[in-house]
TrEMBL record, chain A:
Organism for this UniProt entry: Arthrobacter mobilis
Record lineage: Bacteria, Bacillati, Actinomycetota, Actinomycetes, Micrococcales
GO biological process: tetrahydrofolate metabolic process
InterPro entries xref list: SoxD (IPR006279), SoxD_sf (IPR038561)
Family matches, as Pfam families: SoxD
Protein name, entry field: Sarcosine oxidase subunit delta
Gene Ontology molecular function: any one: sarcosine oxidase activity
UniProtKB/TrEMBL annotation, chain B:
Name the UniProt record assigns to this protein: Sarcosine oxidase subunit gamma family protein
Gene Ontology MF: a single term: sarcosine oxidase activity
Gene Ontology biological process: sarcosine catabolic process
InterPro entries associated with the record: SoxG, SoxG_het, TrmE/GcvT-like
Length: 101, 214
């Protein structure tokens, strides 16, 4: 069970959240110009990272807001949470913080 | 014309006499489920409270207009409530989303009028949720059997309200008071979940009728 910290509500149980997949997947500028392959790439292809991964979560059982989290896919440790629209924290600084502990 | 008709309907006895609270059929069980004594805990329903969903950006003209009409400031952060549970209170639901809870019959008319054309929303949600009140020395212990949120007094004191889950039921959990005989909580489940939530609470309360198992 993950204790996830919502940027608006604070730490809550994982059961209050839903997962939204990889974060920062930009919608294509002009979808009509894409080939089928490029469109499929946008729709279905996601990174499968081992290590730090920026992903989207929604606090369904609370404030119902979307936000982003950086999770270590190996340890399930949540390294950072930040509001939708905010830039992704630098992964290097997050790993150094972890190493310093 | 439609507005006139609605006004009339509110004023005559008809609809108010015909409505049923979502827990009317459990009134007997709720009364019978009360546990007295040192480990006591009691449940009751407070039906038909006025609840109004408010949306406005904090600090905007819309928020100011709503605050003026409600006579209560909007809460600014998670957990916070303003006003009083006996009168009008406003609960924080999200960064720009609030729930106003007021005595039965208050209505949303004044707030709708106050908001005018400003960007925001005022929606009468009185029928959306019903209100359960859980009180007694064991009230917190009962809730902690099924609520994952931290209810310890150091973070969850009187006047705190959060959106969370009780068992599998999404509820608004609001501590309205604290006294020598334990805390008083209001639990606001959706009407369609109210039956389950009440039965869940009654079941959770039964163990406190027996002496504590060391």
């Amino acid at each position: 069970m993950i204790l996830l910290e919502c940027p608006y509500c604070g730490p809550r149980d994982e059961t209050e959240y839903h997962y939204g997949g990889q974060a920062h997947v930009a919608y294509p500028e002009d979808p009509n110009q894409l080939t089928d392959q490029e469109w499929a790439q946008y729709l279905f292809y996601r990174d499968n990272t081992k290590g730090l991964f920026a992903e989207r979560w929604v606090h369904t059982g609370g404030c119902r807001r979307w936000f982003n989290a950086v999770r270590d896919t190996v340890t399930y440790e949540i390294k950072a949470v930040y509001r939708a629209g905010e830039p992704r924290p630098d992964f290097d600084s997050l790993t150094q913080e972890g190493a310093a502990k | 014309m439609a507005e006139q008709l609605m006004e009339q309907n509110v004023n005559i006895q008809g609809p108010a006499a015909l409505r049923r609270s979502p827990l009317a059929h459990l009134a007997g069980a709720i009364e019978a489920g009360a546990v007295a004594g040192e480990r006591g805990v009691t449940l009751r329903e407070i039906p038909f409270l006025t609840m109004v969903g408010l949306r406005a950006q904090p600090g905007s003209a819309a928020a100011a207009a709503l605050e003026k009409a409600a006579g209560v400031a909007l809460p600014t952060k998670v957990g916070q409530t303003t006003g009083s549970a006996e009168g009008t209170a406003v609960l924080w639901l999200g960064p720009d989303e609030y729930l106003l809870v007021a005595p039965e019959g208050t209505g949303a008319g004044a707030l709708t009028e106050a908001l005018g054309d400003e960007p925001g929303a005022v929606v009468d949600l009185s029928a959306n949720r019903t209100t359960l009140e859980l009180s007694g020395p064991s009230a917190r212990l009962v809730l902690e059997k099924g609520c994952n949120a931290d209810l310890h007094p150091r973070v969850f004191g009187p006047g705190t309200a959060i959106t969370t889950q009780l068992g599998p039921v999404p509820v608004l959990l609001w501590q309205t008071g604290e006294g020598p005989s334990g805390q008083t909580y209001r639990i606001l489940p959706r009407a369609s979940f109210a039956d389950y939530a009440a039965r869940w609470l009654l079941d959770a309360m039964t163990e406190f009728a027996a002496p504590e198992v060391p």
